[in-house]
């Protein structure tokens, strides 16, 4: 029996080995061709990105903003018009074209909190028009990049940093806690509402920064089509116990082949088809009606419907804290992480760190050492910090992203109301207006 099992397992491997040994020359051209193709695409993509012209706009909110973050939602909805339904294969292959993106930023430098938008020069007018449409008394000024005021490469002998990108803890169609959840009815008139601005905690954290300390928050966004809505339908079907028919990708197909092979081996040894039957029976789930769901499940279902009904953006959420090595306050890291924690809800989504981008590493095989710090831990951490800092400076759109709709983006980035009164928070002090029509100019 053991010899037969070994023959079943090793036989195909031996066949594959001899096939590769005898016919390697038929496979090599395909491998070389695919490798050259992907290398060319990456080269043209980098060439295209380097050719783009960017501008950085500073947005100063008016002194008496009384509007809800909902106004910012209209800004993002308007910017979705920059989305191109698809980039053609010719554009990708010959010019390296990628989808356009914007960077909405909140920068705290030495205790001063400012709002920025970095955009392609071609969309400068579009950004200004969308912001003025909702905040007509705001001030927009093209400025030099604040990220260039620091050394080109960090960490160095003077500065250290900590940063990370954030992903979702749950699937994309499940939303985070948004600005309507921060609104509470006041004890006065029913028509009045007391609004707790979600940016208040970040503003207070930034106000405690000392000179030469910095907290930068970036939201990189690029419009996307309705493909992600299908993912929301799948999540809703899971809650209702329906069969989810998703198109498997290459990895899934490969996993299914391996699983079928293992089941075949078990069936051969036992002389039954129990493994295959058990797998098929496990795929049959009893469907539910919405009335059979718990209160929490119904809330998730409603939240998915609400999120997928609005325009979505592929988004990257990241932040960095930079401070002098001799005065590096880790409390600022905890405070910034706490700002993102307020969007958590037990029934909804939340942010989690992307371990691949976090500027810390425990090294190789840390379990071998009492300190839980393995080989090359310091070296890996150093290069992670260098790479992350450069991505922040260049506003590089990462390979891993999440889907945020207009309501979620408006919650994360909007011009704060007058209730946010952190020190050193610049606002427009004087109202500006256009000159009267027909004014003679000499």
From TrEMBL:
Residues 53-421 form the DUF8128 domain. It comes from the Bacteria. This is DUF8128 domain-containing protein.
